[in-house]
């Protein structure tokens, strides 16, 4: 089974790109972020014609998350995080599909830092960590997938010295990501590509994609029950080179039906 996350940066404006990617790569489940569309303007018919059912949590002009599936029925379990005082920001949706519980998320950007937007980011992250703890405790196969707006390490950002004051690379945010992983989550992409320079976002400006001046901010985190089934994790970076595309590229994992035996690195 292939499960992907993709910040589409406007589901209607980038719909031809999304549909082309779905047709060419056929992921089984997809978490989308930055729909930038209210619920009534989500392109459900076009998604259905592409072979996918969908649930979505939209918002006019900003944010918005969705989950698409061609691998089975979508059983929605939650929209919004527990204890979120701002229900106007559509940033989290959760569903059970084919035996896997998937939380699709779009974590706040947080800039400028310091300021109220950065405070909101940290508070939202704390609520995510609290909810993630309950998911880990369930011992179910669970995945958290989406745009985390975090570069966890210097390896995940082009010229990290230029990002020291940015909310995506702030020590508080990177510390929160570490606290999340410490619950037992596996960062799928970094686990299978421990030493590679690998990015998921390239700015539209300064010819960033052609220079490979990117960031790794889109992540797929697996609970222990699911991490045992991890076979592959990749970035479809070629999609970033398409015309009128998002500034993000899709990221995906491939899961086996049974636990995968990994060969140990030579001593």
Summarize the model shown.
The protein is of the alpha+beta class. The protein has 7 helices and 14 strands.
This entry's quaternary arrangement is: single chain
CATH architecture: 4-Layer Sandwich
CATH H-level superfamily title: Endonuclease/exonuclease/phosphatase
Low-confidence stretches: none
- Counting structural domains, the number is 1
Measured as a percent range, the helix fraction is 10-25%
Which term fits the overall shape?
globular
Distance between the termini: 32 Å
- The computed structural class is alpha+beta
CATH class: Alpha Beta
Q: What value does the average pLDDT take?
A: 96
Q: Using the CA coordinates, give the radius of gyration.
A: 17 Å
Strand order of the largest sheet: 3-4-2-1-14-13
Indicate the CATH topology.
Answer: Deoxyribonuclease I, Chain A
What fraction of the residues are assigned to beta strands by DSSP?
A: 25-35%
For the biggest sheet, the summary is: 6 strands, mixed
- Helices, by number, come to 7
Listing every helix as H and every strand as E from the N terminus to the C terminus, the arrangement reads: EHEHEEEEEHEHEHEHEEHEE
* DSSP E strands, number: 14
Question: Would you spell out the secondary-structure blueprint of this structure?
Answer:
Blueprint (H helix, E strand, L loop, with lengths): L1 E6 L7 H11 L3 E5 L10 H6 L3 E5 L7 E5 L5 E5 L12 E6 L2 E7 L9 H22 L4 E6 L23 H11 L4 E2 H5 L8 E2 L5 H4 L2 E2 L2 E5 L1 H4 L2 E6 L15 E5 L12
Parallel strand pairs: 1-2, 7-8
Antiparallel strand pairs: 1-14, 2-4, 3-4, 5-6, 6-7, 8-12, 9-12, 10-11, 13-14
Helix pairs in contact: 3-4
